[in-house]
Design goal:
Number of strands: 0
Shape: globular
Largest sheet: none
Distance between the termini: 42 Å
Low-confidence stretches: none
Strand content: under 5%
Number of domains: 1
């Protein structure tokens, strides 16, 4: 195994451990999130976004990594988001939490993981069709939020981090 693969395995295990400790793999937390009655999953994911965002930008600024934005197109975002949401609502798990829940021994969650694999295969097979249809709708090119706004990426990260922390406090005041 290469160093990158070992680091990927290590960070994946740590992330899975944290998901388990935060109880976001529990079915009742998933349903609570879908009903907007329990914001545990949202708080967990926003925390992960903050950590990842600052980590990636620090590595980028130190020239340890390069960034390669994916093309921003509304067709792909809307269709992908709808499929993700439908799958989450039907299964009660998103793909990542279904793998974690199966790892905890809740074997019914394996169907979410299988759906992820089958969906990826279908997407790969249908990519030529998607490329000329859905993925060409409102294509804004390879651009990030900082580039779209014309500001430094640290400004975007700081504003997002403060916004997320404010949102966490609001969730807590509401008992969510």
């Amino acid at each position: 195994m290469s160093t990158e693969q070992l680091l990927g395995l290590f960070t994946g295990v740590v992330f899975g451990f944290l998901m388990q400790k935060a109880r976001v793999l529990r079915y009742e937390k998933q349903i609570g999130a879908l009903l907007f009655k329990d914001m545990t999953i949202f708080k967990f994911m926003l925390s992960a976004i903050i950590v990842g965002m600052f980590g990636i930008m620090a590595l980028y600024d130190l020239d340890l990594i390069t960034l390669s934005h994916k093309s921003m197109n509304m067709g792909g975002v809307l269709l992908g988001g709808a499929l993700f949401g439908i799958g989450w609502a039907v299964m009660g798990f998103c793909p990542g939490t279904s793998v974690g829940a199966a790892g905890e021994g809740r074997w019914h969650a394996i169907f979410g993981a299988l759906g992820m694999v089958v969906g990826a295969g279908l997407y790969a097979e249908m990519y030529p069709f998607y490329k000329v249809t859905v993925l060409s709708w409102a294509d804004f090119g390879k651009i990030g939020l900082a580039e779209a706004l014309g500001v430094n990426h640290w400004v975007v990260a700081t504003v997002l981090a403060f916004s997320f922390v404010w949102l966490f406090r609001w969730f807590e005041r509401k008992g969510l």
